[in-house]
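General statements about sequence and structure are easier to judge against a single worked case. In the encoding step, the backbone of a single protein was reduced to a row of integers, each denoting a local shape. The record that follows shows the chain in one-letter code together with its fold in token form.
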Amino acid sequence: MSSLSKAQQDLILDFYFRCGDDESIAAGRDLIASNPEAARLYADLEHTLTDLDELKYEPCPDNLVELTVARLKAAAAGQSRLAGLLADQERQRVAAPAAQRRWWAPLRVAAMAALFLLITGIGVPVLRNLRYSAWQTVCRQHLSRLGIAMAQYAGDYEGFLPHEPLAAGSPWWKVGYQGPENQSVTRSYYKLIRLDYVQGEDFTCPGQVDVLIVSEPSGGTLHDFPSRRYVSYSFPLYCGQQPQVRISDKTVAAADRNPVFTGLPTDGIAFERDEFGQVVLTEQLQRMLSPNHRGQGQNVLWTDGSVQFLQDRTIGGDDVFTVIGHTSYVGTEAPCSKNDRFLVP
């Protein structure tokens, strides 16, 4: 059991959520700095309650933060409050508008995790991994919705997936370029947002720490995502003027971000350059899996709408994150055959 008092736990929660007044936040900071038990509890909160991070990707009621903090503090008071806490959440979930109901499942998980942690006063490795599991699940749901959007688009466009042809040697890495020329590979898929097939959040994985969400309404003026920070996934770059891909083709439609190009600039790109420099394919880069999920694997979306979490980047003998025969990259490479998948950026 934790030796911290209820008041001390409240101070730590106030500091963690930045929800108290300046005095209580400062007191929480001083307590964490001076008390090893408080520091350990704060570290456990960082590991466990990061499950709540996924909630920022959904539209929420104005008072959600206050409700969440109040419930977490109530949970800390004792295990006897658990049934009432969860019952209250369920009543509000049912009464909430449909657009808000996706909030309540992760909120329920987070409250239970916080309750267990604050009552026992100890860190549990399984709880520390909850956020990673939650991120992977949310990511899979987002990719599934992208698959549905692609199928709907194909239904309206003679069975073809979104496609903006890139000329050979085009800089596929220029995510954010809004000029008339087709530059980045993501421009094709931004049409799903512009034509109102999908929302900007569905192009994001909560495992991407610096992610932002496109809020432009359908029919807006953008031709591509504002920058790489707004899209967590990589998409197939087809060789030259290869014909469009049909939804009926069994192939990879998207996957978690390519680990080879994680160092590409996100904002403030000098678009007058056609090359981003040079990335040399080291042995380490050849082994790396997507950074979206701690390098443990990547979710892969297929054109049939299914999503798989793969712990290997080789599909059908092909490394989907590289071009066959290339050991260095400057951002203008393209695969030379239909059997050579290359997911970028």
Notes: The two ends are 48 Å apart (CA to CA).
